[in-house]
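Re-run with default settings, no changes from the original entry. Doing this only to confirm the output is reproducible before filing.
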Amino acid sequence: KGFSSTFTGERRPKGDRIFEALGATDELSSAIGLAGEFSSEKGHTFVDQLHKVQCMLQDVGSNIATPLSSAREAHRKRTSFSEKPILELEQWIDSYSEQLPPLRAFILPSGGRSSAALHLSRAVCRRAERCVVPLVQAGEADPNVAKYLNRLSDYLFVLARYAAMKEGKEEKIYIKPEP
């Protein structure tokens, strides 16, 4: 009948922003899974990190599916989201960034299958973040969830560049068309 339940048992319309955010997060995990498969075929060592990110996205979804306005303390404890995964992403970003040449132009999604799939994942991540931010602003989701998605999009961008570099693939840059 167009309704679904949150983790707290509350019934909401399927078009509710909670379910929009959950759907975007699920799409993100699927996109990362595809990027992980392409990256695995190329022997990239970061594939385990991508799997860990997918597991964290399950925790992101649990937090989103538990609107704080209807959550009991037991719900909140079970679905809380700490700052630790955010700090881990920042460490990964720093580690890969140190190995990359500096950016001198806008990068277009490119650089081989692994890189392009990671760029797609980054774009889906940014959409998921846009869906989560209003929930955080309304006090329905933990602010760390939005912070995690924000840092995750940066991680995916850096990882896309790293994959292209490791595979010896050229990153296409933006060139302004002549009028």
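The chain has a mean pLDDT of 92. The domain at 3-167 is CATH 1.20.1200.10 (Hypothetical Protein Ta1238; Chain: A;).
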